[in-house]
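FW: tagging you since you asked about this chain on Friday. Here's the raw sequence from the shared folder, copied in full. Didn't touch anything.
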Amino acid sequence: MAPPTQPLSINQGTLREQYDFRGFVEACVRNGITAISPWRDKVAACGLQEAARLIKDHNLRVSGYCRGGLFPAATAAERQAIIDDNKRMIDEAALLGCECIVLIGGALPKGSRDLRGAHTMVADGLAAILPHARAAKVPLAMEPLHPMYAGDRACVNTLAHALDLCDALGNGLGVAVDVYHVWWDPDIERQIARAGPRILGFHVCDWLTPTRDMLLDRGMMGDGVIDIPYFRGHVEKAGYNGCIEAEIFSAANWWKKPGDEVIRTCIERYRTVC
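HL: got it, structure written out here
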């Protein structure tokens, strides 16, 4: 496959331990990166208005904003508070010029075994915030997470489930395809084709074997077992032409390296592996 033509975006999670938001932006610009995907806590620490100014001053594309969702909760009051917070995040994303908000479903409420009930809470939460997102012109991208996260992080675990939500809820809701979470799925080719223009984000990293930590031991592209060009080919065939976003949570390795080295490696692997 030919080298990618879509812009490389760096997800701030890839450099989570090296930089605050200003440092992250400056490091990306210093290394020729033109697209980023910020994390909300880093933006908050910088200040929303200042973060927006930095993005504008450096003419950066914002491929996504991480992360919303997390709807299931034990009480109606808690669920409403989560909905209200997601609406605030939509307003922030509009100010920052984000192309989408990345959401994950959220886990079972503490002490619950009602997975179907959690699924309903996710659907209800999305339905509650979608009118606000449509009005703000900020698309929502549901990102299914690997099934190992179903109990403690995200109960939407397949692209098929995420697309069922899109079918039910309509315009303004799409999906983010993260190879780390979907590479194992034998139905993934059909589901990517089904997603079509509803693919709002394409995230890359690699699955290391053995994996020491499901959450914080992601590999740099090319260091693991995921056939990333296979996925890129299918999302492109489905019509996706947005950024290729490097999102690498790596507590023991990449988070400990100098940020410029990490960015340069992402660029090299984007050109040779993706």
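FW: The radius of gyration is 18 Å.
HL: agreed, and The mean pLDDT is 97.
FW: great, closing this out.
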